[in-house]
Amino acid sequence: MKFAHLSLVLAGLASLARPNAVEAQTFAITNAHILSPGPVGEVERGTILVRDGKISSAGANVAVPVGMTIVDAKGNIVTPGLFAVNTALGPRRS
Fold first, then answer.
1. Is residue 28 part of a domain?
2. Domain membership of residue 59 as a residue range
3. What is the secondary structure of 49-89 as a DSSP string?
4. Domains in the chain: how many in total?
5. What is the mean pLDDT of residues 9-35?
6. Is 3 within the bounds of a domain?
7. 66 inside domain
8. Chain centroid offset of residue 92 CA
9. Is the CB of residue 79 less than 8 Å from the CB of residue 85?
10. Is the pLDDT of residue 89 over 60?
């Protein structure tokens, strides 16, 4: 029993020590059809800048800094700040 508890504690500590890969990422998503619930709203061809895993800016006239990694969305829909937009949350029909 002690071994099981020690294993769980060590696994928990190891997960805390490992940095989150998303937090360290810095990149730009270009040519995106942005659908945002915030002030950006809907932008047909826009850019989203992500710095250290967080969205720093989004919109139609966002300049990509020199040397930043670029991901071309190729006109696909990008929803910054939303997770699993196709979920079935809300009231269910009976």
1. yes
2. 20-78
3. EEETTEEEEEETTPPPPTT-EEEE-TT-EE-TT-S-TT---
4. 1
5. 70
6. no
7. yes
8. 28
9. yes
10. no
